[in-house]
Design goal:
The structure holds 2 protein chains of 2 kinds. In chain A, helix 7 crosses helix 9, helix 12 packs across helix 16 and helix 18 runs antiparallel to helix 19. In chain A, strands 1-2 form a two-stranded parallel sheet. Helix content of chain A is 78%, strand content 1%. Chain B is α+β, with helices and mostly antiparallel strands. Chain B is built from 8 helices and 21 strands. In chain B, helix 3 packs across helix 4. The two termini of chain B are 30 Å apart. Classes of the chains: A mainly alpha, B alpha+beta. Chains A and B meet through helix 18 and helix 19 of A and strand 7 of B.
């Protein structure tokens, strides 16, 4: 290996270490467990946290599987009223952060909400005269999370169902088999379905806003309590490690299922499954079912937000709206820039031919580094906070001794810590489109440019740059929107008095100022629709290419 | 003139080229034949400058391109390349793809050259299309035009027709040969299709396991292969046992011939056209199998002593399986190899 490539490799190694630092710190925290707090935790709330987290993830996974799977099968197989439009619109709940739908439903279904008020008016009952399903409960959290997370299962399963070779169905028919759904379609779509469920469960484990708002004690809220309530950062890190291990299990499941998927996809031909026509009644029924899910997952909460936002338009001034918006936009733009830049560096590292051992090791490290998306925001925040606050203290002490200057919280007290956490959390979001784009540029294209007189820099400028511009914009947009929506890491790491749309929405909602929270929430939801439009565009394009 | 001397190349432990030497006169077309993994593409890539040789040297028109501790960067070699996957730039139109290597020249001059090349490859009407809007054959022509545009001193083509239909292949191969001769550019082409090599090339090289077995004109390669391996790889080959006596005369079932080789037992190379059908001939062979091949019938024959050979008859001349027919040898020259050994006659 030449000197320069060894230098590049060591720079990449350093980058990997930086990107893996929070996760390493989290797991390393178990080297010196905080026994006092753990004794307290195990004797009181730990089993509740763990059980609730598992129930929440399991319940949300199951309900999302039922919703997403059934919707996907109907859309992929049948022709019915509004199919074209609904098949896209069913992705809309993805734009709705869980903490926003949670407080929308709380506003609608609580004792003082419009539904129960109407019920009381209609029947003349009074409060406590009747039973109404409590939304602020574990069950409520499962339902609300499923309503916004089912699209993960829906998208993957729809792709799996609609790419199934029609010859399989014909073969099943010619063999006299009925039960095509149970004996062929479902087993073949199993990897996609389980992969989707794994993603949903990861999100459910990571959720903080919904459970915090509903007052359900789970691991994420427990981490907040241990840190804010007991000030024990090490115990918070140890609790994070527990949560992280659960998620790692799911990541492995998802990766494994994706391999299986590749195996199943191989035999699919270029023919598309023809859509089956339904009778008028059934067509209407299917249309109603899909519309109901869409209404519950998006239209109803979004409508409620709109009504509240308008009704509270006089309170906008109080919000310091301009500040919120500026903070959020600046933060999202800066992170998008940083994340895309690092993602580009990383993706070019992955493109190297893995010839030498160091390159092979590097390749795996870079892959692992981009798994940050699976790690809950809370965990990453603790993983950033802990090592850097210790570093800051050390630097502060040294600087005062030597120079008589106090450096203070130069990292965790500023947006730097926040940017770093976003980098780790959303790197995978940017890596994916960029890696796909770079994969479209075969080495022969570089060589063609070389043989036509370009040096290395010119190859990049004249061939790579124009081909990567589109994907870079898309990667930046995806990260931008994700940062705008992010809640737990922002809550933990934001500098004092630094508010964003997401943080303010959550705080106002927690203070029961639902109407005031509606306007910033609505902006986040609208921004969330942007990537869906792009997603729809690419899905359609790849659909056409398949014909 | 391209001169390659004792070129060796390895990827890590794996030796891909061993002591390859060849010369290609300017204006000539050379072809590299060989099974996959024989090092054909690696040789091309070493000439283009994408791989750095371990030892040996490459020079073009008396300029040293590559030698130990000397590696001229690809962009400074003036060697064009047409890639197997064409590697057209997807974000540029046909015209812009062709103009890619003309950067730095004045605009009018560029336009003139692009127009001339579009004319040459017959794609005038498609100048403003993008690569994905073209058929495979059209993309191939654009790739050729793009490589030719900066007037390279040598053009390298890596399996340029492999992705195309058989009909289109032949047509394009003939077109490419005509264009290369019109532009008077030397070219070296990698292929695994012998017919293509025979049609296009002035010189053909046969590579096997990183060694250049023979570098010769197509006619010589076919009729006077220098080893049994080359003979087996190029064209159809069948073998009869032959004995050479102490006076240098070879004897086999087909007859005798002065060959001037040392005494011993040999294998005689037979091409299908070396055996003719003749009802009057006393030499008889039994038909084992008959295959209809369109213009001719191919008969697999067995001689009385059990040796097998192949004879081609015109396609109306039908005999039945198991019949005995007369054959007569029509060898212009006897090519003999010591059993599992190489030597030319």
């Amino acid at each position: 290996m030449s000197g320069s490539s060894r230098r590049t490799a060591s720079l990449y190694l350093l980058l990997c270490l930086i990107l893996l630092l929070p996760q390493l710190v989290i797991f390393a925290s178990w080297l010196s467990p905080n026994l006092a707090i753990w004794q307290h935790l195990t004797s009181t709330v730990l089993s509740t946290y763990l059980l609730n987290s598992l129930l929440l993830a399991g319940g949300t996974g199951l309900l999302s599987l039922l919703l997403g799977g059934s919707l996907a099968y109907l859309v992929a197989r049948y022709q019915f009223y509004g199919r074209q439009w609904l098949s896209w619109a069913l992705m809309l709940p993805l734009a709705m952060p869980a903490y926003i739908i949670a407080y929308s439903y709380a506003g609608l279904l609580d004792v003082a909400g419009p539904l129960q008020s109407a019920l009381r008016e209609l029947t003349g009952w009074r409060y406590q005269d009747y039973w109404f399903p409590p939304i602020r409960s574990l069950g409520g959290a499962i339902v609300v999370l499923s309503l916004v997370l089912y699209p993960y299962v829906y998208l993957l399963a729809r792709q799996a169902f609609s790419s199934q070779n029609p010859a399989w169905q014909e073969a099943a028919q010619s063999l006299g088999g009925r039960h095509y759904l149970w004996r062929v379609a479902l087993p073949l779509a199993r990897p996609a379905l389980l992969g989707g469920v794994a993603l949903v469960m990861m999100e459910a484990f990571a959720d903080y806003g919904t459970v915090a708002y509903f007052g359900v004690p789970v691991l994420t809220t427990g981490i907040f309590r241990v840190w804010f309530g007991m000030g024990a950062l090490d115990a918070a890190a140890q609790l994070s490690a527990l949560l992280c291990s659960l998620v790692v299990g799911l990541v492995l499941l998802e990766v494994w299922q994706r391999r299986q998927q590749r195996f199943f996809d191989r035999s699919s031909g270029s023919r598309r499954m023809p859509l089956q026509r339904l009778s008028r009644r059934r067509s209407l029924l299917v249309c109603c079912y899909l519309s109901l899910v869409l209404t519950l997952g998006f239209l109803l909460p979004a409508g409620a937000l709109t009504v509240w936002a308008i009704s509270a338009s006089d309170s906008w001034q109080q919000l310091a709206f301009a500040d919120l918006l500026t903070n959020s936009l600046l933060l999202a733009t800066a992170s998008a820039g940083l994340v895309v830049l690092v993602a580009l560096v990383l993706v070019y590292g992955l493109r190297q031919r893995p010839g030498h051992l160091l390159h092979a090791v590097l390749h795996h490290l870079l892959r692992i580094s981009s798994f940050g998306y699976a790690v809950p925001g809370t965990v990453i925040a603790i993983g950033v906070l802990w090592p850097f606050s210790q570093l800051e203290q050390a630097v502060d002490v040294l600087a005062e001794q030597w120079f008589g200057v106090r450096t203070g919280l130069f990292f965790t007290g500023t947006v730097l810590a926040l940017l770093f956490a976003y980098l780790i959390r959303f790197l995978a979001v940017a890596v994916q489109p960029l890696e796909a784009a770079l994969g479209q540029i075969p080495p022969s294209m570089d060589q063609a440019a070389r043989s036509l007189g370009c040096n290395g820099w010119q190859v990049w400028w004249r061939v790579h740059r124009p081909l990567l511009t589109g994907p870079v914009c898309i990667a930046a947009l995806l990260v931008f929107v994700d940062v705008l929506k992010e809640l737990p890491a922002t809550l933990l790491l934001r500098p004092f008095n630094f508010d964003t749309l997401a943080v303010r929405t959550f705080e106002l909602a927690s203070d029961e100022q639902l109407a005031a929270a509606a306007a910033p929430a609505l902006i986040i939801v609208l921004a969330g629709i942007l990537p869906l439009i792009w997603l729809n565009h690419t899905v359609q394009r790849s659909g056409h290419a398949g014909h | 003139m391209l001169v390659i001397e004792q070129l060796s190349l390895s990827y890590g432990q794996h030796q891909v080229l061993q002591q390859v030497s060849l010369q290609l006169a300017s204006g000539q077309i050379g072809c590299l034949l060989g099974p996959s993994g024989s090092g054909k593409s690696s040789l091309l890539r070493a000439i283009a400058g994408f791989e750095q040789a371990d030892s040996g040297q490459i020079s073009l028109a008396s300029q040293l391109l590559s030698a130990p501790r000397h590696h001229l960067q690809p962009q400074h070699r003036q060697v064009g390349m047409v890639f197997q996957d064409y590697a057209l730039f997807p974000h540029l139109t046909v015209a812009d793809n062709i103009a890619f290597g003309l950067a730095g020249q004045p605009k009018p001059q560029q336009q003139q050259r692009v127009a001339a090349l579009l004319q040459l490859v017959g794609l005038n009407a498609l100048a403003n299309r993008y690569p994905h809007q073209l058929s495979g054959g059209q993309q191939q022509r654009v790739a050729l035009a793009r490589a030719l545009a900066p007037k390279p001193r040598l053009l390298l083509l890596d399996e340029p027709f492999s992705g195309l239909d058989a009909d289109l292949r032949q047509q394009l191969a003939a077109d490419v040969a005509a264009i290369l001769r019109a532009e008077q550019i030397s070219a070296l082409l990698v292929t695994h299709d012998q017919q293509e090599a025979f049609v296009l090339a002035d010189q053909i090289g046969v590579l096997s396991a990183g060694r250049l077995l023979q570098w010769d004109a197509p006619l010589n390669l076919y009729h006077q292969p220098c080893s049994a391996e080359v003979a087996a790889f190029v064209g159809d080959s069948h073998w009869l046992t032959a004995k050479v006596d102490d006076s240098g005369v070879a004897h086999c079932v087909l007859g005798s011939q002065q060959v001037g080789l040392p005494q011993g037992s040999y294998q005689l190379l037979l091409r299908p056209e070396d055996v003719r059908h003749d009802d009057a001939s006393p030499l008889q062979a039994k038909i084992l199998q008959r295959m209809f091949c369109g213009p001719y019938l191919s008969y697999q024959l067995q001689l009385a002593d059990g040796q097998q050979l192949v004879c081609q008859l015109d396609s109306h001349h039908v005999h039945q399986q198991g019949e005995w027919i007369g054959i007569r040898p029509a060898l212009r020259h006897w090519v003999l190899f010591k059993s599992r050994d190489k030597s030319c006659s």
